[in-house]
Amino acid sequence: LSVIIALADIGLNAGLLSVGQRAGAILLVAVTAVLTPVAFRVLSPPLRAAPVSVE
To answer: Is the pTM of this model over 0.85?
Structure first.
């Protein structure tokens, strides 16, 4: 996240981004970082251990 903030600051200082675009970029990355593990857990099937036969 710190890399994205630094890149957004560079873009802001270079005149490529407005303040709102900088905030939006940081918010987008933060939300994606939070929701990716949640989406992976919801969309992927649960892993189950293979049954072990004891003889």
So the answer is: no
